[in-house]
Amino acid sequence: MAKKKATASKAPKAQKSSGKLQIQSWIETFDFGKELKVKNELTGFVYFLGVDDSNKLHGLVEEHALAWQMEGLKKNEREFIYFVGLQGPVWILRPRSKNSVGHDGLLDEAQYTWARDQFGGLVAQFKAHQLKALQIEFHGTSSTQDLGALTGLNMAPYNFRQFVDGKHLSDLPKVALRKTLGDLEKETLKAASVRSRAVTLARHLVNLPPNDLNPKTFSEMATKKLPFSKNMKVTVWDTKKLISEGMGLHVAVGQGAEHGPCMVHMRYRPTKKSSLKPIAFVGKGITFDTGGLDIKPSSSMRLMKKDMGGAASVMALALWASESQYEGPLDFYLALAENAVDGKSFRPSDVITARNGMKVEIDNTDAEGRLVLADVLDVACKQKGSDDPEFVIDVATLTGAIKVGLGAEIAGLFSNDDDLAKALTDAGQRAGDLNWRMPLFEKYWGDLSSPFADCKNSGGGFGGAITAALFLQKFVGGKKWAHLDVYAWADKASGAIGSAGGSGQPVQCLIEFLQARV
To answer: 36 versus 30: which is more confidently predicted?
Structure first.
């Protein structure tokens, strides 16, 4: 079957008055397959050379460079070349092969990643030059490189304060994009738009202040604000329903807050019948974490609006599945609560019964994320019949310990299934959204022993990410399961993340994982 070429695309419509959250896309305003035609406007030129073509490079230099620049530019062997020439600023990008850093290539920079971050990083330069027009040319690039470049261009403009009304796109140039030595596929354009907008949603949810985003308003995002397709059914279990289901751990965490805890279930079933079994995703959604009665010091509480980063990524993945019309059945669960300080807050030494019947002694009210996840994991794992999941994957900003070990950009991966773990790690490498497998070392379970209950919810000071994962494993009932312990935050702008704040981790990894299954 012949591949479809890209055609000119109309600008996205303005935000509708329906109350839906419309995530606008810059690349959907590009003129595809065209030469740029401008008059008296400051213009920039970007060339992405996917093949090592010295003749092409020399031709570009001769077309744009001043006489005194030519000799040096032709000899330049760098991946990134920038100069201001006869017609305006010029950027030439040409990836070079690199030696592997080892680890079976699992931490190597993928073609997609390089293109995404290089093109994402250019957006700030376009703004700094105050460009009014931009010609972009892809030359001999692969579809993977095209996807990365377009995704980066679409991710980088996001700015929290300007996002909702679309002003984050207002100071960007008009763009004509063409491809030589190859075709730009229409499917690639759509994939880049849907993927980048999903990441943007996750980032925006994390950035929302906790006086705006609480369990009630978060659940309303799913039921009222997002433009899900008709094959996505959304159900909300309120606090009363959680109590009737015996979800004592989930209820306890949120019982001190003004807005009580709830669970959101987004059930996606493709239009065409699929032979695939469902995959369930569970996201930790603590909309603000004071630490509870074991209150955090003020310095540790500053970023605790991001403690719903796991739920943000799961909701973003649901939007991606809906808009891309994913071919397999999926379930998305959000475990929502606010861990507040109040006379009704749960206490250290409370013994609480989980949905699966386990009794848990509260050792630390600041180890609350695993409690809400535990009860919701039990719901996800006990679905029956055609809804019985093949895999269950949870995503959570669960421990500071994992960041100490792996830093902000590499998620900790725990799994009871080698094949599932490998698929997720491989997907993370391809997507530039890395994770690294950590051990489920059963000997550490003894740190959670309790004389008053089946276990405690936290243990000693070492191996905290491992004991947290071991706790969650007790609630998956032997299902093939993976747990991603994420940071979900970018402390500074870098690459396609054009501003500090929510990072969208691990949305791109999970998209790659799902795409590999169909």
So the answer is: 30
Q: Please provide the CATH number assigned to the domain covering 221-488.
A: 3.40.630.10
**CA-CA distance, 258 to 261, in Å (whole number)?**
10
* pLDDT tens track for 393-428: 999 999 999 999 999 999 999 999 999 999 999 999
**DSSP label at residue 12:** P
For the stretch 324-343, pLDDT in tens is 999 999 999 999 999 999 99
Whole-number pLDDT of residue 6: 57
Q: How far apart are alpha carbons 212 and 484 in whole angstroms?
A: 26
pLDDT in tens, 134-179: 999 999 999 999 999 999 999 999 999 888 666 788 889 999 999 9
User: CA 322, 327, 329, 330: dihedral to nearest 10 degrees?
Assistant: -50
d(CA 51, CA 182): 11
Q: Do 27-184 and 221-488 come out as alike in CATH topology?
A: no
Amino acid code (one letter) for 450: S
What's the start-to-end Cα distance of the chain, in Å? 18
Sheet holding 80-84, edge to edge: 31-32, 174-180, 133-139, 43-49, 89-93, 80-84
- C-beta of residue 87 within 8 angstroms of C-beta of residue 46: no
Strand ranges (E), 214-271: 232-237, 262-268
275 vs 418: CA distance, rounded Å: 23
Q: What is the DSSP string of 219-232?
A: HHIIIIIS---TTE
Whether the Cβ atoms of residue 509 and residue 129 lie closer than 8 Å to each other: no
Place of tokens 């312990």: 485
The contacts of residue 74 (CB under 8 Å, 6+ apart) are 57, 58, 61
Q: Which CATH class is domain 27-184?
A: alpha beta
Angstrom CA distances, 468 to 29, 366, 425, stand at: 45, 12, 20
Bridge partners (DSSP) listed for residue 174: 133
Backbone angles phi, psi at 142, to 5 degrees: -85, 165
* Domain map (residue ranges) of the chain: 27-184, 221-488
Asked whether the beta carbons of 334 and 218 are under 8 A apart, the reply is: yes
Residue 370 catalytic?
yes
Known catalytic residue: 355? Answer: no
Query: For the chain, what's the residue count?
Result: 518
Which of 74, 296, 359, 437 is catalytic? The answer is: 296
Number of C-alpha atoms within 13 angstroms, CB side, residue 387?
12
Round the CA-based radius of gyration of the chain to a whole number and report it. Answer: 24
Residue in 370, 403, 479, 480 annotated catalytic: 370
CA 321 to chain centre: 13
